[in-house]
Design brief:
This protein has about 180 residues and is of the alpha/beta class. It contains 5 helices and 10 strands; from the N terminus they run E-E-H-H-E-H-E-E-H-E-H-E-E-E-E.
Length: about 180
């Protein structure tokens, strides 16, 4: 069982503008049309867990980008678009540890955790095993931060860093857990 974060941030640590915008990611030059390792990462994942805001943002992208099952954390969302009924499930259980155990029992052992509040909540519950963060050379100055307050420090160990297009810096860290 493992939970992963794969996300891009601005140099100042924001994953979106204050209104949830991610258009600044589209401005990254990509002459080779690279996915920057995303497809390879997705081969390690059984399912995706995201928050309602992230889900609603992804819906604006046009075609649904995921082939894996998606679990949306929401206490307000009651249904998903008809075309996603077989792929997306709304989860309103607030206890993340219980949710992870339930998903594990259903065969989803490797979860991709996405969305600002969702990542922060999983970190607060010490449920993230690996962080893969790509820093984009832009300073937004304000926005939705990747990290929030924690009641205790979580130790991670650097695994590797890759540079793409001489501008994106993608680093992977694994959680050091006490035995």
């Amino acid at each position: 069982m493992a939970n992963y974060v794969y996300i891009a941030t601005s140099l100042d640590g924001f994953i979106a503008t204050p209104d949830g915008g991610v258009d600044w990611l589209d401005e990254i030059p990509n002459p080779e049309q690279s996915d920057f390792g995303y497809a390879e990462f997705m081969t390690r994942v059984d399912a995706i867990v995201m928050g309602r805001n992230t889900f609603e943002k992804v819906l604006t992208f046009g075609a649904w980008p995921y082939e894996k099952p998606v679990f949306v954390l929401s206490n307000t969302l009651k249904q998903v678009p008809d075309n996603l009924v077989d792929t997306v499930e709304i989860v309103s259980n607030g206890d993340l540890k219980t949710l992870v155990k339930q998903l594990d029992k259903r065969g989803y052992h490797h979860l991709y955790v996405d969305g600002g509040r969702t990542v922060q909540s999983f970190l607060a519950e010490d449920l993230i095993d690996e962080l893969i963060i790509t820093r984009v050379p832009i300073v937004l100055g304000n926005g939705i931060p990747l990290f929030g307050s924690l009641t205790r420090a979580l130790q991670f160990e650097h695994q590797k860093t890759e540079i793409f297009n001489n501008m994106l810096v993608k680093s992977a860290y694994t959680h050091l857990r006490e035995e």
